[in-house]
Design goal:
Blueprint: H1 15-22, H2 27-36, H3 43-48, E1 50-56, E2 59-64, H4 79-95, E3 102-113, E4 124-133, E5 137-146, E6 151-163
Antiparallel strand pairs: 1-2, 2-4, 3-6, 4-5, 5-6
Length: 169
């Protein structure tokens, strides 16, 4: 078996920088700063090469162009990559409606894989939407589709809301 060497390099900013900045911003301000480039993207986004496309309160879209470094041993994009895209757009959709001093953590994440993602899938768009935000939890959903609208995966998530102002010691 012949092997062709492939290399990939990328850079990322100090993740603590954005974490500190986020404490003084609303969710939509933080995400807007990442989208317009005035704030660095989180390291995982650089690692997986996913990019924000659209931001409005309660709806977020990211893109993923399937590449070899996303592959599992059977020649398709690893389910963890797909899950990460859906988790990201759901979390960012929720973050877009949070005021300064609020955060969240995932309580439950469910992903349905509909169709294998390969290089032939082309550019994929993950869209996350807020379904409901209560006092302590939020319900979210997301789809991963190609540009023709073919569904590759669907997800739902329940998140717990955290008031950072009341958790100070």
């Amino acid at each position: 078996m012949s092997t062709i060497e492939r290399k990939r390099t990328y850079e990322w900013a100090d993740p603590q920088q954005i974490a500190e900045m986020s404490k003084s911003m609303s969710g939509i301000e933080l995400l807007g700063g990442i989208m317009d480039g005035s704030l660095p993207q989180p390291p995982f986004a650089a690692t997986l090469d996913i990019h924000p496309l659209h931001l409005e309160k309660g709806i977020v879209r990211f893109e993923l162009m399937p590449q070899e470094f996303h592959f599992n041993p059977i020649g398709s994009v690893h389910g963890g990559v797909i899950t990460t895209v859906l988790d990201t757009v759901m979390g960012c959709a929720l973050h877009s409606v949070l005021e300064q001093g609020f955060a969240y953590t995932t309580l439950e994440l469910k992903i349905n894989f509909i169709k294998a993602v390969t290089l032939k899938s082309g550019r994929l768009i993950g869209e996350g939407r807020v379904i409901h935000v209560g006092k302590t939890t939020a319900l979210l959903e997301a789809d991963l589709k190609n540009e023709a609208g073919l569904l590759y995966a669907h997800g739902t998530s329940t998140c717990m809301l955290l008031n950072l102002n009341t958790n100070k010691k």
